[in-house]
Amino acid sequence: MSSEPLDVDHTVSDEPLCGEIGDRIMSEGGNAVDAAVAATFCLAVTSPHLTGLGGGGTMLLHKNRENKTVIIDFREAAPAGVEAR
Fold first, then answer.
1. Is 58 helix (H, G, I), strand (E, B) or coil?
2. How far apart are CA 56 and CA 59, in angstroms?
3. Does 5 reside within a domain?
4. Which DSSP letter does residue 64 get?
């Protein structure tokens, strides 16, 4: 295995077009979080039944400089006072 750093910046998405949009954001100076947000907005258009502005999700983020990976859970939740009828 090489110790050379990889020069790989790609956005992975269920929809290839949304991944391409994320890649473009990074090629224009954005970071991985910028790319993920852009790809999510794209998915809100291409797959509105799965995601959207009011929806939630999960993000796996690797902080390369710290060699630390974190999971951000932003799944939606009903307010505490809501009751099923």
1. strand
2. 10
3. no
4. G
Six-digit token string for 8? 């790989």
Read off the pLDDT of each residue in 41-70 and give the average, rounded to a whole number.
82
Give dist(CA 64, CA 26) in Å, integer. 15
Interacting residues of 63 by C-beta distance below 8 A, sequence separation 6+? 69, 70
Kindly state the tokens that stand for 17: 């077009």
pLDDT band at 54 (very low <50, low <70, confident <90, very high): low
Does residue 81 belong to any structural domain of this protein?
no
Q: Is the dihedral of CA 10, 13, 16, 21 positive or negative?
A: negative
Residue 3 has what pLDDT?
A: 63
Q: Residue 24's closest CA among 3, 34, 14, 13? A: 34
**Enclosing domain of residue 48:** 16-73
Q: Quote the strand ranges of 1-85, DSSP E.
A: 58-63, 68-73
Q: How far apart are CA 60 and CA 38, in angstroms?
A: 15
Average pLDDT value for residue range 52-61: 73
